[in-house]
Amino acid sequence: MASASLLKSSPVLDKSEFLKGQSLRQPSVSVVRCHPTNATSLTVCAASSYADELIKTAKTVASPGRGILAMDESNATCGKRLASIGLENTEANRQAYRTLLVSAPGLGQYISGAILFEETLYQSTVDGRKIVDVLIEQNIVPGIKVDKGLVPLAGSNDESWCQGLDGLASRSAACYQQGARFAKWRTVVSIPNGPSALAVKEAAWGLARYAAISQDNGLVPIVEPEILLDGEHGIDRTFEVAQKVWAEVFFYLAENNVMFEGILLKPSMVTPGAECKDRATPQQVADYTLNLLKRRIPPAVPGIMFLSGGQSEVEATLNLNAMNQAPNPWHVSFSYARALQNTCLKTWGGQPENVKAAQDTLLVRAKANSLAQLGKYTGEGESDEAKQGMFVKGYVY
């Protein structure tokens, strides 16, 4: 468990605020209530009755020295992880691995939120405790992946859009009742395929609708338009595309009356394409990325939790550390999946006797990224495994 002093220093939600079985507070209306003041003026929109709770949740996740463990792999993606260490994709094996992750002693000292898959939200550990309850005991806010995955976008240049808006309100309400307090929705933009104006607009609009519906049901939305690493383009092209994407995203968030103080962002870092011959240093990545954020992200947003997107464990940590060498208007942190779990998974290898060693490895990575969030990571003593890149061309989650 995290130390008492650290728990007291972080803004923390009361356990009673997100325990299963509580009665749901029903907002009297949707996230905003719009009242025309006269026949010619714009409407005035009031905040949701969930507003205070959304702000508190967002600040809890964006607390100093902590970030998000993205363990929201679908069952199919989790199967890929298990296959890499020779394990069959069964519920028992998925349960064993997820138990290893959430029960790592003291994980909450470095991890403030965990993004779960639907199966995991309702799952118990191997010893019968609800995974949601284990996270809460660790001072980790449970979150939930609510999108339904990518499908081809008709009329585009072989691009995708993210489905899942149908039925999202009822699903979000059920997830809230189960203990989730934030949500995650991932859509993607491909630079080699354009990106087309259609794909960018579809991504931005879908994210905005999801964000409004999430806030309407008490969940802080993580807004994630991932700009894929695929391609030979340089860092300037990534910067150009990212500016356009984030301009569209915030335009439509505003159009949908999303409260910026009650969201979190999960952007890609601004890097060259994975197949570009000119590589960028951590300082270059930090400079480009922070310039982008300063141009596009309002300071009202509490936290920016970067995805790793196929970077090696060490590369993702070094880049995050470089971004935290000076104060930022937002909490600049991490929401990593493979960049937290890769070495942990291989250390475990599906063997019960390796659980402690695997948990220790997870804590090493979590602590490294905690230090990077504070701008204090040095990169000393890292293993060769942690330096191995994890980019997979055309990777499908």
Automatic annotation (TrEMBL):
<comment type="similarity">
    <text>Belongs to the class I fructose-bisphosphate aldolase family.</text>
</comment>
<comment type="pathway">
    <text>Carbohydrate degradation; glycolysis; D-glyceraldehyde 3-phosphate and glycerone phosphate from D-glucose: step 4/4.</text>
</comment>
<protein>
    <recommendedName>
        <fullName>Fructose-bisphosphate aldolase</fullName>
        <ecNumber>4.1.2.13</ecNumber>
    </recommendedName>
</protein>
<dbReference type="InterPro" id="IPR000741">
    <property type="entry name" value="FBA_I"/>
</dbReference>
<dbReference type="GO" id="GO:0004332">
    <property type="term" value="F:fructose-bisphosphate aldolase activity"/>
</dbReference>
<dbReference type="Pfam" id="PF00274">
    <property type="entry name" value="Glycolytic"/>
</dbReference>
<dbReference type="InterPro" id="IPR029768">
    <property type="entry name" value="Aldolase_I_AS"/>
</dbReference>
<dbReference type="InterPro" id="IPR013785">
    <property type="entry name" value="Aldolase_TIM"/>
</dbReference>
<keyword id="KW-0324">Glycolysis</keyword>
<dbReference type="GO" id="GO:0006096">
    <property type="term" value="P:glycolytic process"/>
</dbReference>
<keyword id="KW-0456">Lyase</keyword>
<dbReference type="GO" id="GO:0009507">
    <property type="term" value="C:chloroplast"/>
</dbReference>
<keyword id="KW-0704">Schiff base</keyword>
<keyword id="KW-0934">Plastid</keyword>
<keyword id="KW-0150">Chloroplast</keyword>
